[in-house]
Structure formats: C-alpha cells, structure tokens
Write a structure and sequence with these properties.
The protein is an alpha/beta fold and 451 residues long. Helices cover 40% and strands 18% of the residues. It is built from 19 helices and 18 strands. Strands 5-13-12-11-10-6-9 form a seven-stranded mixed sheet, with helices on both faces. Strands 2-14-15-18-17 form a five-stranded mixed sheet. Strand 10, helix 10 and strand 11 form a beta-alpha-beta unit. Helix 3 crosses helix 4, helix 7 packs across helix 12 and helix 15 crosses helix 16. The longest helix has 17 residues.
C-alpha cells in the first residue's frame, strides 16, 4: 500500500497554488514559505491527511498565527499579584514613560555630561538607592541571580563560602543556590542541618580558605516546628571577627512596611542592611515593583569588589531597565505616592471593599452564569510564603462547558484572560484586574460562555 504521505504536495507546488500565491503579495516570502512548510509538516504528522479546510485556508491561518507577536500583554485574573509566568510586577506609569523616553532617542547611558567624556551606567541609580536605603554604595545588574553570582565571585572566588543547609534553596526554573555558587568560583561549604543551624556551625567551618559567610532568606517556603537559624546580624558579627565578608541574599526587595495590611515576616531591605552584613542582594521586579533587575547594596569595599569583577560586564543592566528602575525608585521618596502609583503595592494594600465593588461590576457585566464569592489572593513571586489576602471572586458556571474548556477559551481572547480553577469552577480575581479592564474581561467572559 502506498504511504499517503507520499501524496503530499511539494513546497514549491503549494506556493504556486492561486490561494497561496496571493498571500505572497501581502506578506513577506519568508513568512509564507515558513507557513507552507509547517502546514505540510502538520499534514505529514497526521499520516498524510490534507487539512479539512483546504490547503489555502490552512496556510492562511498559519500565516496569521506566525505574523502575530508571540509576546504580548495578558489580563491577570488569577489573583496572583507577582505572577512569575505573567511577567511579575507591572510597571508604574512613570517607569513606562521613562522607558519610552529613552527608547526613542540617544541617551547618556555611559556618557558624563559634566565632563564631556565616557561615563559609567553603574552610577545611574546609585544615588537614589543609597538615598532611600542608607547603604554606602549600590550596584544594579540584570537580575537577582546575577547579583548573587557577581557578589559570590567578587567576594569569595577561589575561596570557601559558608551557608546553612536549610538555606540551599531552589529559586525557580530549577535553578539552585548551590549551582549558582559553583559557577561563581566559590567553594560551597554546608553547615548545620535542614531544620536547625547554630552559630557554632558557622564558627566551626571558618578556616584559612574561608572568604564569605552567606545568609539566604527562604522567601519561597517556610520551615516550621523544631527549627533554628542564625540571624543575619550574628552572621555579620562572626564574619567581621574572622576578617571575612558577609552576604545576605534577601530575595524580594521589600522597601516599605506592609504589616498594616497583614503582610509581615518578610525582612525589609532596611532591616537587612541594619544587620551589618557587607552586602545585600535582592530583586527589582518583586516587592519593589520595578523592572527585572538585581540590586546589590552594601559597604563601598564590598560593592567595589563586585563592580570591578569581570562578571560585572556580563551581567550589566540595559538602558531600559535602568530608566524604569530609576523612575520606580523616585516614587519611594514619598511612601504614600509609592503605594498609590506602583501597581504591586497598590494591589497588595487595596481595601477589600474596593475589590468587592469591582467584583460586583464584573458580575453585572457578565450576567448569567456568574456569582460573587469570597476568596483569597496570593502575593506570589516567592514573597510572603503561606500568606494570603482576602478578596472577592467572580465564579463562573456553565452547563455545557467544562472549567478547562472555559479557561482555554478565555486564554484565546485578545488579549488573553488568565484565570484560575478552584473547586472545578473558573474564578476571576479583581485584585489583579486593572479597573479599566473590567468591562473588557466581562465581554470576553460573555463571548466564551455563549460560544
């Protein structure tokens, strides 16, 4: 029997078909060629079966999918404020404007306007960071993992870095602290146990090869029960006594006290610096609410060691990150303005009655098949593990669609609406839906339920 795949059209033959040839007048040849090849590949994978809608329509649909941007905005209705898969922190308006202002022109990224000579990008956010935190010096790199890698290289390369076994965390995407330490050139020395580490464990590990004591905040999980850990201030004191460096990997980068809104237990940047460690590293796109960045703060000698390390060039920040971070940091000069203007802070501290109003507006917009129920939001992003925030949800019910199908239909809208499924119902959390998106989400839900 002849294999049906042998009867599939050749690429050039399909390009010559009138319906497909017409696409070449409206689209680049490379795009149409790719669409043709992928359409044939799909047919081949299906055992040689031609597209049921016909070759021309199948290629046209493929062209449209390929021409559409693969990276675009979505509506976060899942109720996870720092949703890593959805880009974590949405930026404040001043940060967006700062990026746009820099994008359309040349800039003084590495040009000293006063001297009329080459400058350094490392000075662009330094002043604001030291002003806001009281740190002696500051350095910005492209993300927090890079900041940790650079700090370990600058402070402990070719030496021992001592860390508690209970703090050897996985930071997401299967990246682990021990792996990062290994790439830095520092040798990992584990002390203590998973649940209990004491000062004597660190003291016993310090030797001639020791360069650094490392403290890692367990920001994405909690250990409870029979536990013990050594505070950062004690680690800093031990390091000073031994004439070696100390480093605190803080994680989320909390600059404001959020305990009034039920969010306590996450160490702030100020508290970390007050512990006396030589350097602190944290993220710019988590609780700080800015762009993806890694921030190092600390003493001048420690930050200088990082700034002059060869890795600093490889992990430096780009102009857009620096522009957005500077604009975000400037908002922190007035904590109330920061809480109002930075979306992450606004979502985390919003009065639940305001969220209920948006839930009721969304319920009214959807109509039949929706109800307003109590629920919980999450902080996300490895911040405040175990903590939830009271919220009001819009729960959807359909007599002909499963929750998975309904969620898939909402992901297929423009822009996609990302929801969560709880108790076999699709639920939408207005905490993470911007006010001007409520009507848009309601239309998308109506269309998905009616289709």
């Amino acid at each position: 029997m002849t294999d049906p795949r042998r009867r599939l059209p050749a690429v050039e033959a399909l390009l010559a078909e009138p319906d497909v040839a017409a696409l070449l007048a409206a689209h680049p040849r490379s795009l149409v060629l790719r669409a043709v090849r992928e359409t044939i590949d799909v047919a081949r994978a299906n055992g040689g079966t031609a597209p049921p809608e016909g070759w021309g329509r199948a290629v046209l649909a493929k062209v449209r999918r390929l021409a559409a941007p693969s990276f675009g905005p979505v509506i976060n209705a899942a109720g996870v404020v720092l949703h890593t898969n959805l880009g974590r922190a949405p930026l404040a308006r001043p940060a967006i404007e700062a990026m746009a202002r820099i994008a359309g022109a040349y800039s003084n990224l590495e040009y000293d306007l006063a001297r009329g000579a080459r400058g350094s990008r490392h000075g662009l956010c330094r002043g604001l960071l030291t002003e806001l935190t009281g740190a002696e010096d500051a350095l910005v790199v492209n993300n927090a993992a890079s900041a940790l890698l650079l700090a370990l290289s600058g402070l402990a390369r070719d030496g021992d870095a001592v860390v508690s076994r209970g703090e050897l965390v996985e930071i997401g995407g299967a990246f682990r602290i021990p792996d990062i330490m290994a790439r830095s050139g520092a040798k990992l020395v584990e002390v203590g146990t998973t649940n209990r580490t004491h000062p004597k464990d660190y003291e016993g590990a310090i030797g001639p090869a020791t360069r650094l004591l490392l403290k890692v905040h367990r920001s994405n999980f909690r250990v409870t029960g029979f536990t013990s850990e050594v505070p950062a201030r004690d680690i800093a004191a031990m390091a000073r006594g031994a004439g070696i460096a100390s480093l605190f990997d803080l994680g989320s980068g909390l600059l404001l006290d959020l305990s009034a809104w039920g969010l306590a237990g996450e160490p702030s940047v100020g508290e970390a610096l007050a512990s006396g460690v030589d350097a602190v590293v944290f993220s710019g796109d988590k609780l700080l609410g800015g762009p993806q960045a890694g921030i190092l703060l600390g003493t001048k000698p420690a930050i200088d060691a990082c700034r002059t390390d060869p890795l600093a060039r490889a992990v430096r920040s780009d102009k857009f990150t620096l522009a957005a971070l500077e604009a975000t940091l400037a908002l922190y000069r007035d904590p109330e303005i920061a809480r109002r203007e930075i979306p992450v802070l606004r979502m985390l501290t919003e009065d639940v009655t305001q969220i209920r109003r948006r839930a009721e507006a969304l319920h009214k917009g959807v109509g039949k098949g929706s109800d307003v129920i109590e629920g919980e939001s999450e902080v996300g992003g490895g911040s405040f593990p175990g903590k939830t925030l009271k919220t009001w949800l819009v729960q959807l019910t359909s007599d002909h669609l499963t929750s998975e199908v309904l969620a898939a239909r909402l992901r297929a809208t423009d822009p996609p609406v990302i929801v969560r499924i709880a108790d076999d119902h699709v639920v939408l959390d207005p905490r993470t839906i911007f006010p001007d998106q409520i009507e848009q989400v309601a239309r998308a839900v109506r269309a998905a339920l009616d289709a």
